[in-house]
């Protein structure tokens, strides 16, 4: 099939190498078209990153809280790694749990949308996207009200003797639930996109070749949706690992995530900028390494 | 006094070293490319040097040109539950009257959750000389100290504010951090103590120790500013918070609070948003600010919300209006400050917020609004009331103590 497609696009060497000046012109056009994107990346990604790196190596100006001087103070990184190792671990644990839960919820949903929904497909799609019409903070805040001690959820569960502690909010469970809820659409959409693109005839062929439903799913459907699963897990795990809002609004007082430490170093501690920047850099590096290993292990040729 | 930042480096920085190596010849094209990248990275790194602390005296201040005459606009940052509101809480009667009187369009933002987080957000912009889109911010004494020391607020023209000069209470005129009030004008003062719902708690709370009982486990919130929470705990441990206490005393208090969090008594440590936990019922008692609890009682129509100073003592603080250094509407700001020092207006605000009113003559005006409130020690405290209840002010910390204690508070109490 790919050979055919190639043949259709490229008229098979009818037109040999084009004249040189035109080729040069064409390549310049490509660079010109790239320019806005490169500029955007440079100004809004690279420059702030350099600034962040610079801040992460600054030192506190003694005697003036909140002032810094330029330095190469790598102790900021040492402090980020030693003092806050438990916070990193907690971030990755909660984000990992949320990713697993979101996957468990999203896959059947995406599958139903792609293969079973029929005329309900668009409505289901709208339902998945609808939460985006309200701000992330507001929705999380709404959960803090719904799950409050005197709310009906806790009241109902207590009535059924299903909640021994009598409290949902301000526990790690609420944090993982909040993360799962908030990032669920990011898992559903790419999986749905992969499944929707899968050729149903290939899945049917699985049945024709005497595979039962589960084997067909395991050997045909799931592998075909892997690009979506990969993209979905990345889109869930990466922001969840750096999130601090769920912990702030739904979480307990002790045992914060690394995002909260960065927020606190940045906002609550006079002179906390360098450590906050070092923590941000370390978090970024750690996520990069994890994602790299993950993609190496499970990656396919394309994402989505 | 200030150590000079380490700048003199004998060894060459990597990009420079690479360049000198390139000059001495024998460098491959690939290495040269790498050098270029490293050199430009080095250049970029050195470009973003942080602003230095203020060095000169007040004479070095550069004030922006005031455009108040042409721009009838004023933007004011304040705390929640801190201005009189109409029944639906959509508008402030006093503020509406001010806008009608002067034609100045005031946008009022309740965007201060606590001093640290607010100042940490705006200070970098102010230091860089950028606008923060505010003409007044309202910060507590100790933070005002820092703002004035950092030269990030404008000097005020008291001559333009006859009400302030005439009616600011005498003790406040001599504030240690701003003698003569050249930079800051008191908005309200208040107390930190115990706030609780008497019905839900089922008894009276008289001391901090009354909070640590099994029936209140997990239903207590405390303030995220250590100058309130740690101060009250230190007082309960017998420390005179106005005197020259040190690290050991602070550590004791922090250790105590941390223990109460670990044991599950304290549910959350929060800024002004602790009110949400009291409203939602997640918490029924805590270390709170005085006026908030009276406003809460009014908002929820539940008179069992009670504020009290613990037996071991409480704190008294003031919040102060200041004009950010980059504001171009100082004159408008001064008109507003002066307006709120009219005793009749001040009484109207105090009748709603129930914080300590800094305006002389407001008590007489309050008689006309509500005679009971005119007698309230929470709005018009007498010197005896302050002394009898051991109400103190947290001593001013120097910069190093400030950082050290904030760090300790953040990692041990804030859970970071």
CATH superfamily of chain A: MetI-like
CATH architecture label of chain A = Orthogonal Bundle
Report the helical percentage of chain B: 40-55%
What structural class do the secondary elements of chain B suggest?
Answer: alpha/beta
Please give the order of strands in the largest beta sheet of chain A: 1-2
- CATH homologous superfamily name of the largest domain in chain B? Periplasmic binding protein-like II
Q: Uncertain regions of chain B: pLDDT < 50 for 5+ in a row?
A: 1-39
Assembly category: heterodimer
Family (chain A): Belongs to the binding-protein-dependent transport system permease family. CysTW subfamily.
Keywords (chain A): Cell membrane, Membrane, Transmembrane, Transmembrane helix, Transport
Protein name (chain A): ABC transporter permease
Pfam families (chain A): BPD_transp_1
Task: Characterize the structure shown.
Chain A: This is ABC transporter permease. Chain A: It comes from Nocardioides alpinus. The complex is a heterodimer of chains A (304) and B (416). Chain A is mainly alpha-helical. Chain A has one domain: Orthogonal Bundle (MetI-like fold). Chain A has 13 helices and two strands; from the N terminus they run H-H-E-E-H-H-H-H-H-H-H-H-H-H-H. A two-stranded antiparallel sheet of chain A has the order 1-2. In chain A, a hairpin with a 7-residue loop joins strand 1 and strand 2. In chain A, helix 9 packs across helix 10. With 416 residues, chain B is an alpha/beta fold. Chain B has two domains: 187 residues, 3-Layer(aba) Sandwich (D-Maltodextrin-Binding Protein, domain 2), CATH 3.40.190.10; 144 residues, D-Maltodextrin-Binding Protein, domain 2 (3-Layer(aba) Sandwich). Chain B contains 18 helices and ten strands. In chain B, strands 1, 2, 3, 4, 5, 6, 7, 8, 9 and 10 form a ten-stranded mixed sheet that branches. At the A-B interface, helix 2, strand 1, strand 2 and helix 12 of A face helix 2, helix 4, strand 6 and helix 18 of B.
């Amino acid at each position: 099939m790919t050979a055919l497609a190639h043949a259709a696009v490229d008229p098979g060497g009818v037109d040999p190498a084009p004249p040189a000046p035109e080729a040069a012109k064409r390549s310049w056009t490509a660079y010109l078209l790239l320019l806005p994107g490169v500029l955007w990346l440079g100004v809004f990604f690279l420059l702030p990153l350099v600034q962040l790196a610079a801040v992460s190596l600054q030192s506190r100006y003694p005697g003036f809280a909140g002032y810094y001087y330029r330095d190469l103070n790598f102790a900021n990184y040492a402090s980020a790694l030693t003092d806050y190792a438990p916070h990193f671990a907690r971030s990755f644990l909660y984000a990992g749990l949320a990713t697993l839960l979101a996957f468990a919820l999203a896959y059947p949903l995406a599958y139903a949308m792609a293969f079973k929904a029929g005329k309900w497909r668009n409505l289901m799609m709208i339902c998945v996207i609808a939460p985006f019409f309200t701000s992330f903070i507001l929705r999380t805040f709404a959960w803090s009200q719904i799950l409050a001690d005197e709310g009906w959820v806790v009241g109902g569960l207590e009535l059924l003797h299903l909640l021994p502690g009598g409290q949902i909010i301000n526990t790690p469970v609420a944090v993982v639930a909040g993360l799962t809820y908030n990032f669920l659409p990011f898992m559903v959409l790419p999986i749905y996109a992969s499944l929707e693109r899968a050729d149903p005839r290939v899945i049917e062929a699985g049945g024709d070749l005497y595979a039962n439903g589960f084997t067909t799913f395991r050997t045909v459907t799931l592998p075909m949706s892997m690009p979506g699963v990969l993209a979905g897990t990345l889109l869930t795990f990466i922001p969840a690992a750096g999130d601090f809002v769920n912990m702030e609004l739904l979480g307990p007082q002790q045992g914060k995530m690394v995002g909260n430490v960065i927020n606190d170093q940045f906002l609550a501690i006079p002179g906390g900028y360098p450590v906050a920047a070092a923590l941000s850099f370390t978090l970024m590096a750690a996520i990069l390494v994890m994602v790299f290993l993950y993609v190496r292990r499970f990656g396919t040729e394309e994402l989505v | 006094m200030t150590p000079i930042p380490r700048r003199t480096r004998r060894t060459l920085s990597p990009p420079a070293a690479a360049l000198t190596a390139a000059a001495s010849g024998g460098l491959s094209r690939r290495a040269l490319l790498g050098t270029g990248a490293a050199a430009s990275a080095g250049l970029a790194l050195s470009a973003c040097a942080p602003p230095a602390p203020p060095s000169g005296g007040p004479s070095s201040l550069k004030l922006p040109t005031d455009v108040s005459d042409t721009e009838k606009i004023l933007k004011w940052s304040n705390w929640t539950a801190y201005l009189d509101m109409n029944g639906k809480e959509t508008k402030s009667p006093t503020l509406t009257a001010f806008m009608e009187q002067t034609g100045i369009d005031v946008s009022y933002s309740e965007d201060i959750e606590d001093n640290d987080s607010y100042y940490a957000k705006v200070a970098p912009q102010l230091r860089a000389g950028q606008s923060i889109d505010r003409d007044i911010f309202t910060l507590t004494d100790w933070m005002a100290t820092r703002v004035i020391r950092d030269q990030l607020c404008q000097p005020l023209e008291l001559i333009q504010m006859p009400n302030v000069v005439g009616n600011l209470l005498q003790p406040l005129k001599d504030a240690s951090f701003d003698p003569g009030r050249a930079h800051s004008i008191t908005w309200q003062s208040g107390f930190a103590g115990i706030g609780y719902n008497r019905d839900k708690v089922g008894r009276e709370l008289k001391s901090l120790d009354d909070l640590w009982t099994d029936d209140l486990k997990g239903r207590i919130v405390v303030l995220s500013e250590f100058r309130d929470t740690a101060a009250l705990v230190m007082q309960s441990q017998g420390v005179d918070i106005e005197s020259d206490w040190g690290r050991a005393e602070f550590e004791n208090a922090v250790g105590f609070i941390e223990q109460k969090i670990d044991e599950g008594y304290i549910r959350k440590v929060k800024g002004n948003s602790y009110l949400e936990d009291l409203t939602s019922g997640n918490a029924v008692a805590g270390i709170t600010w005085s006026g908030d609890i009276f406003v809460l009682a009014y908002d929820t129509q539940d008179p069992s919300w009670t504020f009290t100073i613990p037996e071991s003592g409480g704190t008294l603080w003031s919040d102060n209006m200041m004009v950010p250094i980059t504001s171009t509407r100082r004159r408008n700001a001064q008109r507003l400050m002066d307006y709120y020092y009219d005793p009749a207006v001040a009484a109207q605000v105090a009748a709603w917020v129930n914080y300590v009113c800094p305006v002389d003559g407001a008590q007489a005006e309050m008689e006309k609004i509500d005679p009971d409130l005119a007698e309230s020690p929470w709005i018009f405290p007498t010197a005896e009331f302050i002394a009898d209840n051991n109400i103190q002010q947290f001593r001013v910390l120097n910069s190093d103590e400030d950082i050290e204690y904030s760090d300790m508070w953040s990692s041990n109490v804030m859970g970071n």
